[in-house]
Amino acid sequence: MPKPSQIIIKPYSKRKKKKRLRRILLGMLTVLVFVILTIYIFLSWLIKKEGKELEKLRSENQILKTEIKKFQSSDLAYEEFLRVKMGYIKNGEKVIQYK
Fold it and tell me: How many domains are contained in the chain?
């Protein structure tokens, strides 16, 4: 006489737990890599932008240094600045304005 078949209920296997844990960890790792890559790209862009601004400020600084040296070296440059930029005239000079 054959034995009747029995239904065996197995507990949640360790393999399935490991597989699920691996999927969760892989998903978290993927998100972390994406976030780190985004931050890296943003910071690279920011560094380039600040580098360009720094270079611009250095060139302006160099121009101003040459002007300072020019004004310190002679009074003619200072007088030219006052006459051209500020509109000063010497005593006895006449100003002619064209309309």
Answer: 1
